[in-house]
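Bug #77: duplicate submission created two jobs. Keeping one. Sequence:
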Amino acid sequence: MTIGLLKGTNSWGHIGWVTVYCRVCGRRLSLTGQKPGAARKVEVVYYCPKCAEKYEAYFCAADARALKYRCPFCGGRLEIASPLPAPQR
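Kept job's structure:
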């Protein structure tokens, strides 16, 4: 028997660990920067540092732009949660 072998939803690669939902439109977002179900497309996810733990305040790029990059709960500035790829030279 191997120790530390995780299977199912407890495994490290499970999509449930990195999936959040937009608080405005309910769209499924991935914190890895990849669009769910699409290959090699970058998705930017915004969050409010103050309200992320309390309200799970994550926003898609379209709703963040509509909110003028301000949190609707506290009025704070939204920050980027997903990693952005390094520019290629």
